[in-house]
Every structure is written in structure tokens, then in C-alpha cells.
Amino acid sequence: MAPYRLAPDPASSGERLTVLDPASGEAFDEAPDQRAQELDVVVRRAHEAWRSWRTDPAARAAALLASADAVEAAGDRLAPLLTREQGKPLAESYAEIARTAARLRWFAASVPETRTIADGRAVHSEIRWRSLGPVAAIVPWNFPLQLASAKFAPALAAGNTVVLKPSPFTPLATRLLGSVLSAALPEGVLTVITGREPLGALLASHPGIRHVTFTGSAPTGRSVLAGAASGLARVTLELGGNDAAILLDDVDVERIADRLFWAAFRNCGQVCMAVKRVYAPARLHDRVVEALAARAKAVVVGAGLDPGTELGPLNNAAQLARVERYTARALADGARAAAGGHRLDRPGYFHAPTVLTDVPPGSPVVTEEQFGPVLPVLPYGCVDEAVDAANATRFGLGGSVWGTDLDRAEAVAGRLECGTAWVNHHAELSLAQPFAGVKESGVGVAGGPWGLYGNLSPFVVHRPREDRP
Description:
Layout: E1 16-21, E2 26-32, H1 39-53, H2 57-73, H3 75-86, H4 90-108, E3 115-117, E4 123-131, E5 134-138, H5 144-157, E6 161-165, H6 172-181, E7 190-192, H7 199-204, E8 211-215, H8 218-229, E9 234-238, E10 243-247, H9 253-265, E11 275-281, H10 285-298, H11 317-332, E12 336-339, E13 354-357, H12 364-367, E14 374-380, H13 383-391, E15 398-402, H14 406-413, E16 420-423, E17 442-443, H15 448-453, E18 456-464
Parallel strand pairs: 5-6, 5-8, 6-7, 8-9, 10-11, 10-15, 11-14, 13-14, 15-16
Antiparallel strand pairs: 1-2, 3-4, 4-18, 9-17, 12-13
Helix pairs in contact: 2-4, 3-4, 3-6, 4-5, 9-10
């Protein structure tokens, strides 16, 4: 593996944060455990860098393109490190790095549109756009680099500077990413800070931060929202989901089984918009369970750095315990494991890919976000029943409908209470589209031009159309 250890951050207190390998559960490296008093220095530097960064859109675009090139060039250093601390298969880490570079290029070409207001008055009114200032980007451990770039790429393109805080479970690849980007970005434009809580909460509430963008759990999101409110900072929150997949009675089970399986189990189920519940017509229910269980039993589970691995471990001990708890509760309530149903007897945070049937509808594995390799399959009698069940959740991130009649499937998808609905696929996003949730799945919009404008403030200039005395 290529070397990746970074020199100590000169702004760090000297305290260290131990990083564990989820494939073994053992410590393999450290990162700075930064303290609250260091935030003032970091945010002040971000504010100073903002003064010049905001003034030259062409220079920003060039810097973002150079950043994309630098990320791709560092792929062979970034990917193994990302897999080592996060757990995902190496191919998925390379895909995450490619997505990071692609997002930088997409936003490098994104320019806010100056607009003229035509309302019949003898006044020329023009809407221009201004950056906000330092942005706090707080990122979880499931897609550390991809979600970081989803926050910093539009923020930087808009002329803001960014203070980026990764999860304490996955700080290393993000620190390396920050080092890589420092060759393309002016000093202070993007700063990575690492540490345990309450570092993130203190960053969100810092008076020098003008926009807080966070991805994580709803309880933590509420804390972030409360902290940001103290300084009236703008807030964008993506708070997870409990996405349902509805299979219609004309679905070709074998044809869609692979896509459906990976829509639920990719990244060991640790995807906010993964399929987390499947609703199947009663007459097809057993076939659906059988098809998904066969794939769960056949998938290769192992360390992400092993070439044959298709599914890695969960990222951390707490998440493994959560998945075990939800699975055990479902089995105790009468559910049956058609595949898996237990953690694997090996070092690390491995849980067998699990397909559950006969699950009580009120079981937490159905009503909550399990965020792991466990999938309940529930039967339904009519489509209205399936739609009602899919919508009976406090979450509303995504959902999908699967069937042969695409017009019918799209009509059903239009009834789902979520931010994105797919037909015959799931969790596929374009860089050009908005990404948002309803209910407790989020506040604000990310992605595409909406992500850019979310990092800008309108500035309106009025002037007479002709000189007046």
C-alpha cells in the first residue's frame, strides 16, 4: 500500500484520535483530536481566504478543475486508505473517488445566472448572486469522500470557503483528500478538522460560520439545527431514510432480483437511500424472498482489501450492535431469517447478509432505519395497501416501484411521499439533479444547480432606465 501518513496539523492540540480497521476491529492509525479552542483559528483563516476567493469566478473554476485532476492522480493512495478505515470493497472506494472528481468538474462549470426582472416599471432590476462566507461541512462515515465533495464542491464553486469535519470513525482519507486538494486550492479555502464530539456541534454553532451542511442521523441533525440557529446560519440537512421498494404484480422477479438486492445491500446496507423495506404482492412474496435469499447466501463477505470481496463489514461496533439488536428483535417477534440473521463469527464488524420474512409490520427493522445488511420483505394485498405502508414512516428520502408496465409503475411512484422516486431501479443519482427529503429526512436541497444556489444569497440592484432629475 502506498504511504499515506500525514504530518501533524500545526493547528492541532496534539491530542490523538485512534482509527480502527472495521475488518479486524483493531487500531491501525491515528488522526488529530482537535479541540474547541482551535475552531476560532480555523474559521478566521477561512474568513480571510474568502475575501479573495469570492472575487474571481474564473480562477475558482480553474482551481476546481485542477482539484479534480489531483484527486484522480491520488486515487491509488486514497482508495486503499478509504477501504481500510471504512470497510467497503476497494472497487467501491475507487468509484467514490471517481465520483468526487466528477462532482468537482461539474461544479467548476456551474455559474449562477444573473437575471433581469421585467415588471413594467421604468426601473432596471437585476438579480445577482453573492457567496455566503465560511461553510461548515459535517460528513458521516458511510461515504466520507463522496459526501464531502457533495458539500464542498458547490460551496467552493459559489465562492465560499469550507471547514470540513469528517466522522471520527473515518478521518484519514478525508485528511489525505484535504492534503491533495491543498496543491490546487489557495490556503484557507478548504480546511479539514478532525476530532470527537462536541467538535461538530461547536463548529455548527460557531458565529463565523454562515452555512451548515450536515449528513447524518435525525437526532444529531436536530442538534446541528439548534446550534446553527444561535448564529442564524443557513442549514442544509440530509437525515437518512427508510426507503421502500414496492413490487407490482406484473414484476419479473428474476429479472430485477440482482438490482433489487444491490439496491439494499451495497456498502453493507450503509446507504441513506438504500432499499430498507420490500413490499411484494402476496402471490409473489415467497418467490421474492427466495430470490433475494439466494443472492444473500452467495455473496462473498470479507475484508474490503481482499480482491474477491463483494460485501465488506459494517463500519463500527456501535452500528453492528444496532443491526444485531434490530434483527434479534424481529426474530423474537416471530420473523424468520430466510438468509443470515446473525453476526459472523470472525474478527471485525461482520454481519451475515440477512433477508427476513414474516416480519411484524411494527417491528423496528421495518419502522426505523436499520442501516445495515438486513432486509425485511413484507406481503401486501392491493397496491393501495402497499403505498400506505410505504408512506407510513417519519422518513421520506426515496422510494421505488418495480414492474413491467412502466406507466403504471410511474403512476404508483408518484404517490410515494419522498424526495426521489425511481422506477425499476433505486438510489441512482445524477450530478445535475436535486437531492432532498421530506418529513424527517432533511431540510434544504443539495445537488445540481439547486446545490449551487443553496450556497448563494440573492443581491438585487435597482437603477432607473434613464436619468432622472
